[in-house]
Design a protein that fits this description.
The relative contact order is 0.10. The chain is about 50% helix and about 20% strand. Helix 2 packs across helix 3. It has about 260 residues and is of the alpha+beta class. The chain is built from nine helices and nine strands.
Length: about 260
């Protein structure tokens, strides 16, 4: 441990705090005893953390149960809008949903996962259980694969090495070499497909979005039911719409 490093006990305490937050999120609130049992922690430790978070406004208490407060919403919204480029992407996602009459989204990569920053669904678009801020696997989504295809080779390979390659449908790519081949094809045409790989009956097209420096900002994608996402509309027209939109967004970012 370096001279400036925090004591191990402090680090462990922070780990416990985040585990408690995770449980409150996953179970939509819980009692001290329930959290202590699930995490195998002393009740006094759990109570201490919850009391501190309550004091700082990060949890609320209803009866004997604790819930995450809207303080997290404020922090999340700050993260969501902190970059001007993220703000510019919002308008493009809205336009894409209207233009294609499907669902459109803008996703970035954090810690080897895709994160929904913006999502818009048209009148006829299909809603799924994907929410803003939710983390999704890169290997099974169109936007995720678009990001992987545009990342620097060394970093992309390090991400691939850490991927769990979880299978979601019979079409999910779980072989690293097969994914590498698909990413190479995506680099050559600058867009990728998701053909029922994350959700059965749902297909998508994704295109990477680059910053002026050439770094990957994220990716935009359009998804819809497979019976509509087919033929030239799926393989040619939507990719062209996305490529044009990504180009406009990149120009907006450059000159904003």
């Amino acid at each position: 441990m370096g001279a400036g490093d925090p004591p191990l006990s402090s680090v462990k305490s922070v780990d416990r705090l985040f585990e408690i937050i995770r449980v409150l999120d996953e179970f939509d609130g819980a009692r001290v005893t329930e959290v202590a049992t699930m995490l195998e922690m002393p009740k006094s430790t759990v109570y201490g953390h919850l009391s501190t978070m309550h004091q700082h406004g990060y949890v609320i208490k209803e009866g004997n149960e604790y819930y995450l407060s809207l303080q997290f919403l404020r922090l999340g919204e700050h993260a969501r809008w902190r970059k001007q480029a993220y703000k510019l992407a919002h308008d493009k996602v809205t336009w894409l949903a209207d233009r294609t009459d499907e669902r459109a989204q803008f996703i970035i990569e954090e810690h080897g996962k895709g994160v929904y920053v913006h999502r818009e669904t048209s009148e006829h678009g299909v809603e799924t259980d994907s929410n803003i801020g939710e983390r999704v696997p890169l290997h099974a989504t169109a936007a995720g694969k678009a990001i992987l295809s545009a990342l620097p080779a060394a970093y992309a390979e390090s991400v691939l090495e850490d991927l769990e390659f979880e299978r979601f449908t019979e079409h999910t790519i779980t072989d690293p070499d097969e994914l590498r081949e698909e990413l190479q094809a995506g680099r050559e045409r600058n867009y990728v497909f998701n053909d029922e790989e994350s959700t059965k009956g749902l297909s998508a097209v994704g295109v990477p979005v680059l910053e002026q420096s050439g770094a990957v900002l994220g990716a935009i994608s359009v998804s819809g039911p497979t019976h509509r996402m087919n033929g030239d509309w799926f393989t040619e027209e939507i990719p062209l719409i996305l490529l044009g939109t990504a180009n406009e967004l990149e120009l907006d970012i450059t000159f904003s």
